[in-house]
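ok here's RNA polymerase sigma-70 factor:
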Amino acid sequence: MNDANVTFHRLRARLQAIAYSMLGSMADAEDVVQDVWLRWHDADQSIVNNVEAWLVTATTRVAIDRLRALKVRREHYVGQWLPEPVLTEGPATPEQIQERHGEVSVALLSMLERLSAEARAAFLLREIFDVSYAEIADGIGKSEASVRQIVHRAKSQLRDGQPRYAVSPETHGRIVERFAKALSLGQFKLLASILAENAELIGDGGGRQSSFPEPMHGGQRIAQLLYASSLRNKSTIRIELASINGELSVLRYIHDALESVQTLETDGDHIVRLLVQRNPEKLARVASELGVPLFAPL
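and the structure:
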């Protein structure tokens, strides 16, 4: 294997992380990286001065094209669309979480859907993957000045779309653990106390599992829903914690089969948003890595 191909395989995880962050789907990300590999194999490698920059640019361009096609398909998605959760190493220390690059939370990935393909690429490459403005400009076919404006507008758009909170991993973890305990024990009062008054629940069933067509609002309503579900499945529910996209999250099992992955946003005191992934297609990879079956309603 020549040095250039060695470099590709060394960077493969980074390229896949970029593609996944763009697309919210591991299968699509793998397709993008495979496409880039074929393009790299056919390229005149002797004239490439910076292999990493070439590969990142190629990945960005292919991912932008793929995202534009996916956005058309997602307009016809049944119910609410949430990204595919990814099982990450855990439990991680706060220091390890800070050191990780390319692990974009499910919450941020869902918010990025409001951006255009080019704005999403520019924001992710600059803010998450620390790519220079010059390289981003080459990747999306814009001037460096334009890229700076695109990133600035993207950050403003994300801030305006929904407030985000700076919460330490330790604080986030404590709230997630309290929530998991309340779910496991079926304690309504504890659930209600953990959820913010204006909390929001977003569920993705993909038309294959029951879910809500629109977000549910109100901590009391959400607590009642979760409590009722616990009562219905009381003897068969198991709650576990796992690192999903670099954040401590909740796995819910029914009859020892993975039923949902639940990621939480908190303000440091309460849960402000609960993202519940129930689509079996998007849970298949997590279930496979855990060595457990997927839940199928009777």
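+1. The first strand starts at residue 195 and ends at 204.
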